[in-house]
Every structure is written in structure tokens, then in C-alpha cells.
Amino acid sequence: MEAVAQPISITPTAIKEFKNILSAKSDAEEQFLRVGVKGGGCSGMSYVLGFDSQLPEDVVFEIDDIPCVVNKNHLIYLQGLEIDWHNGLDARGFIFNNPNASSSCGCGSSFAV
């Protein structure tokens, strides 16, 4: 599938963390950052974030040399999503800032539309 414009954005701190994770993987050349959603979580939908192979139903794009994929059916929920990384005393991990979410849970890993 051909590459498309970026439907999501990743902050510089999150890009650094993704690159750290990729550099530790032995099969990094074959891996894409997968961003998606699935049913569940305390607000109705949960985010999916990990490294995976490209599938036929994926849209492909690149952010700062990180190859990314999103299932085209998930774009309605993820268009405009920003992924950030926090490494502080009060929180450590990836943070999702989603303009499509009408509400989200306290932990930030699930949302409602």
C-alpha cells in the first residue's frame, strides 16, 4: 500500500522513545509502529500501540523516519491524534491527546467518541 499524509502526530519526546525501542529490536527493519483502537476499556475504546507488520488494510505513513501503520477503519477515531511521552514522577508512558474523544478515563488509555 502506498504511503499517505500523516493522520496522527508524535511529539519529539515520543519519537525519541520509539526510536529507543526500535534500536533494541533485532527485526526493526520489518516493523511498523501500529496505532489503532479496540473495543473495551473503562470509557468504551482502548488504544492499541506497538510494533507490527504491515497488513493489506493498513494505511502507511512515516513520521521522522519511523514507519507507521493504521488500519483504515480506525482512522475515523484517530485522525488528529497526538502521541506524547512523559517520564516524570507522577506519570511515565505514552499519552494520547485525541481531538475525537468526547471523554477519556483517568488513566488515559481509553476513550469514548
From TrEMBL:
<dbReference type="InterPro" id="IPR035903">
    <property type="entry name" value="HesB-like_dom_sf"/>
</dbReference>
<feature type="domain" description="Core">
    <location>
        <begin position="8"/>
        <end position="108"/>
    </location>
</feature>
<dbReference type="GO" id="GO:0051537">
    <property type="term" value="F:2 iron, 2 sulfur cluster binding"/>
</dbReference>
<dbReference type="Pfam" id="PF01521">
    <property type="entry name" value="Fe-S_biosyn"/>
</dbReference>
<dbReference type="GO" id="GO:0016226">
    <property type="term" value="P:iron-sulfur cluster assembly"/>
</dbReference>
<dbReference type="InterPro" id="IPR000361">
    <property type="entry name" value="ATAP_core_dom"/>
</dbReference>
<dbReference type="InterPro" id="IPR031108">
    <property type="entry name" value="IscA_plant_cyanobact"/>
</dbReference>
<dbReference type="GO" id="GO:0030674">
    <property type="term" value="F:protein-macromolecule adaptor activity"/>
</dbReference>
<dbReference type="InterPro" id="IPR016092">
    <property type="entry name" value="ATAP"/>
</dbReference>
<protein>
    <submittedName>
        <fullName>Iron-sulfur cluster assembly accessory protein</fullName>
    </submittedName>
</protein>
<dbReference type="InterPro" id="IPR017870">
    <property type="entry name" value="FeS_cluster_insertion_CS"/>
</dbReference>
